[in-house]
Amino acid sequence: MSQGGAAARGAATSQDKGWAWMVLLAAVLLQGLTLGFPSCIGVFFTDLQHEFQASNSETSWFPSIMVAVLHGGGPLCSVLVKRFGCRFAVMLGGLLSGVGMVSSSFCKSISQLYLTAGLITGLGSCFSFQAGVTVLGYYFVRWRTLANAMASTGVSLGFTLWPLLSQYLLDEMGWRNTFLIFGGILLNCCVCGAIMRPVQLASGSPLQSPKPAEEPGKRAEGAQLSNGASSPHPELQQQTRRTACFQMLQKYLAFDIFCQNKGYQIYTIGVTWMMMGFALPHVYLVPYAIQNGVEERRAALLISIIGFINIFIRPLTGLLSGHRVFTGRRIYLFSLAVLLCGLSNFICVISAEFSVLIIYCVILSIAMSGIGALTFQVLMDVVEMDRFSSALGLFTILESITLLIGPPLTGLLVDITSDFHYVFYNSSFFLISAALFMGLSFFALEKKTKLKEASKVPLDNPSRYQYNEMPTEPQSESQSPPAVVYITSI
């Protein structure tokens, strides 16, 4: 065995101990500060409506923009990480998040809130969260799966604590001062980023900021530009630039996989449609409870109940889905969780009493745990791991679009009808239809594959017609993790 290989293996082994666990603790805190933060926005919904004399639809644009940017900014974050490294991206995200919320406390109109809390804070949260998850891939090799599972508990902790803190501060000092304090709290993302120092390879080069391989399009463009001064055909330069642009899109947004892989196509469409209704209860549950006579503190407690149950159920769901019995069947577990999530909304329609709403939150939290634990695992099942990063880039951008437009459209319907029940009718429609679409489509895909195998008809490209679970074995210890993986959480 070569000395270089032994040194690389030793460097990889050292990544799973010592300072790596401090980085994991910082990642837990980061996920609570970023992904958990939008859960508290419903607490301020009524106050913001009164302050700016805004409709349900206008007010709901604020959390929708925040969540959509948080989920859809993955490709931008990946460019930032490749250029400057994970530590810089996390700290920049913390700075943007803090500045966004501090600026929000001085807003004079709801449209200004879209820019400050929605766009700036959402983008900052995206940078901090996704770069924070990416750095775990560098610090952990052997225990990478465990590290990601433990880090995801930060989301549940955020869901539990943010609404309670928000309601307390809102009662004590109003929403403007609360947003000002939130700005200071979110600046702690910078502290988390400072902990995430670059990992060193055995050779001494930083692992966290790898130099990206030069793209063929860039090489071609460079060659063309070097001769550009004497070239009589500038349109060739433009064509080369277009080619480089297309290759960049191909790298970060896998349109070719979407067109060729039927499993990825079905799953992406199903989840994108599902997101039209998935976020609605998080935005409207608190104002719905308050409108029906529930005390504001108790209404805020409902979101915390969802987060608290998630702390325990999500890891159990992840362990259950990893059992060999469910190999190749995780898409059906995911569809079942989405179906349960949609059916649970009818509980709110039956009654808005606090005790009934608690039952609703318990069932919704169990279903959400299944969705959160399986979303990206199923994606890994239907896409080859060497294209997972680009497939996830397109996946998150499409789902962010429906996350953006879902709550405002439902808010418009509530404004027209003055009936909050339509929130839960809408949510159920999108979730149930998405669950049936995904479950039945994958079942039909499997059946079609079995018929083709039985008749022994050769397939030109089997991945276009069947749902195959792709191997998700952890990388060997001597192999460095990918430069960037877009990660979101539900």
Description:
There is one protein chain. With 490 residues, this protein is mostly helical. Helices cover 75% and strands 0% of the residues. It is built from 20 helices and no strands. The chain has helices spanning 3-14, 19-34, 45-52, 56-72, 74-84, 86-104, 110-139, 144-151, 153-186, 188-195, 216-226, 234-252, 255-260, 262-278, 280-291, 296-321, 330-350, 354-382, 388-417, 421-455. Helix 6 crosses helix 9. It is globular, with a radius of gyration of 23 Å. Residues 1-14, 207-231, 463-467 and 469-489 have low confidence and may be disordered. Pfam families: MFS_1. Its main location: membrane. The chain crosses the membrane at residues 21-45, 61-81, 88-106, 112-139, 146-165, 177-196, 266-287, 299-319, 331-351, 357-379, 391-410, 422-445.
Number of strands: 0
The proportion of residues forming helix, as a percent range, comes to: over 70%
Helical run tally: 20
Helices and strands, in N-to-C order?
Answer: HHHHHHHHHHHHHHHHHHHH
Content of β-strand: under 5%
Please identify the structural class as seen in this structure: mainly alpha
Instruction: Tell me the span between the first and last alpha carbons.
Output: 44 Å
Protein name: Monocarboxylate transporter 6
Biased composition (Basic and acidic residues): 212-221
GO molecular function: monocarboxylic acid transmembrane transporter activity
Membrane topology: Multi-pass membrane protein
